[in-house]
Records
---
Amino acid sequence: MPTLVLASTSRYRRELLARFGLPFDTSRPEVDETPATGERADALAARLGRAKALSVAAGLDHAAWVIGSDQAAEVEGRLLGKPGGRNAAIAQLQAMRSRRVRFHTSIALANADGRVLEALDLTEVAMRDLDDGEIARYVDAEQPFDCAGSFKAEGLGITLFDAIESRDPTALIGLPLIATARLLRQAGFRLP
């Protein structure tokens, strides 16, 4: 089988990819993640996933495949980034209460020849009508400062939702494994 590299230092993506039982390395992609002016969340996620995969693949041999992924969240068309701290996380969750939040999660599989296989997942989260106390308690308990949308769906963040609509529950955590498996099989990896 070809060599596999995950273009990410995210522990969430690393843990998800490990479910496949395939050996892989990790590498930090050097990509500017600043959204372009007027860039939609789906276009941003796709562009960054592709850029991450290609930036790492450029330095590898032709037998290697690199997985790049990114996630962009939006509420009513407004991009939500990673909060980075407590106050920003609280503000994000306050802006999201009683609304539907759309998470676009990209997967790009690239090799040094420039071949790229891609997919984009959409997950919609219906947020509960959270009061300020619930938001503060959640943020203090889980400190989701490195997560787009300021929550961890795989943890206590699940209590913030009325519903999740998705074709792939792993996409919300950061890597859509159903699409990833499909792309890996197309690239010649053997999965059950």
Note: Strands lie at 3-6, 25-26, 64-75, 78-80, 100-111, 116-127, 161-165.
---
Amino acid sequence: MKKDLKIRLGQVGDYEIRLLKVFEAVVENGGFSAAESELNIGRSTISTHIANLEERLNLKLCSRGRGGFLLTEEGAEVYELMKTLLSALEGFRSGVNALHVSLTGELRIIASDAICMDPQSGLSEAIARFSEAAPDVNVLLDVRSLSDIERMVLNDKADIGVIPYHRPLTGLDYRTLYADDCHLYCSRTHQLFNAKPSPELLDQVLSSKVVHAGIHTSPQVGAQLADMNKAAISYFYEARLAMILSGAYIGFMPDTYVQRYVEAGDLRALVPETRHYSLEVCTITRTYGRANRARELFLERWMDVVNHARHPN
């Protein structure tokens, strides 16, 4: 028989909400150790918070030991109830914001790497314009992997995601910002850096070791990599660039991201006439949910910046 939570739990205040958010991070990261970096607290503190939550709920939520982290049946049910509660709280915050002329609260933006500093994105100017229009809204900007961004927006952990477009997902709205042209690059220490155009060059390129993102993005990317020697995986652009600069690998990179390395003579594009593709960069937001005026205002300002860059006159 289930315990009577109305009697055992009583009021749910700020402290309980904090404990539930710790529990949420532990569940979604698959354990205490994995949740440390997200929560920025130690494992012993996380363990204490979970123990306190279990005491308040009078329920055993999870087991942790040699067998690893495992949710109990009651823990899994509490997790689902908690998601409903936190979503309702977020809906309340957004609803109250919508009632005010002056916006408050937080706007959570999660971007794929390289996009934040891409001059084509106009993100810095969009933040400046938004902050002037809504000075009481705190903008939280972070960088995650593509799949994490989609999951966070769908689960209402982020208000706006920014990703290279690669597939449509039910529950998400997409708005195109700009397109990134990508070419195949090698460093000046690679054996092909000084190679002259020739019929043999393409064969040499195809036999060279390629570092790539390791995920399916667009059909264009898949077609470019299909006949290449895929020898290493590095998801984030910064890490992939380091591997290319090592001279051991070649790889595709956005032109704007590596422009300064090309100008400095550290990188060159290989067979640029045939080895290139374009990636659309877009924002993603939840299709369903309450209106979010801060989110819509930010997107409006951002699109203004991008459109002005495309059509300055």
Note: Residues 112 and 145 are 6 Å apart (CA to CA).
---
Amino acid sequence: MAKKRKRTKEEEHVDESWLIPYADILTLLLALFIVLFSMSTVDQKKLEEMSQVFTQIFDGGTGLMENPSPLDMPVTPNQTNEADESSAYIEDQQALAGIQDSVDEYIAVNALEKQFATKLTNEGLLVTIRDNILFEMGHAEVKPEYRQIAEDIADLLVFDPPRNVVITGHTDDIPISSNEFSSNWELSVMRSVNFLKILVENNTINPLYFSAKGYGEFRPVASNDTAGGRAQNRRVEVLIQPRVLEDGTLNDSPQ
């Protein structure tokens, strides 16, 4: 009887070895939850510091914590520079348009619409003057009766800060050969130089920013087959250059 009771007691013993891996699983799950919780916890101090930085950037606007938005993106230095360059270019183009208005007003007041024209181009403000109001045929000296026009133009070319200004002479394709000039190149260059000399007599103009050149008959704007076309080609051009180019490059140093 005693042996029988002992065998029954042994049969009632339950194997508890499975508790060890179960406890390990619970430990791992607890560690996982702790890691996930720590990753989801926001560093309040760092977030507040970030909010202050953004507030300063936007000149005292609403803080990041006061008006959170998932669409707000930080502005990079490159984006800021590109915006500044674009703004400077637009402002300079507006300034050139204002200069054009002043020149157009002078043209209208003096009834010079047939001799003058203005146009905004990629290279700047182009003022075109027909040669018949400035020069005798085949000569490069400005007519005394029209010298005042050159002096008035000089007043319109006073800028602060100064701008680069290029004076260019052009002729038609009729060959010239005289004691004074052996080619249309020479004639066109001397016309631009003589016109420039009158401009820089204005004491408020800085000659460092002015230059002269000539293309002869090689930059026509009309056909040389007609008298009207040749008259259009005989001209002096005043190019007022921008201070800021389209790519943001500054163009404010003397040529």
Note: The mean pLDDT is 83.
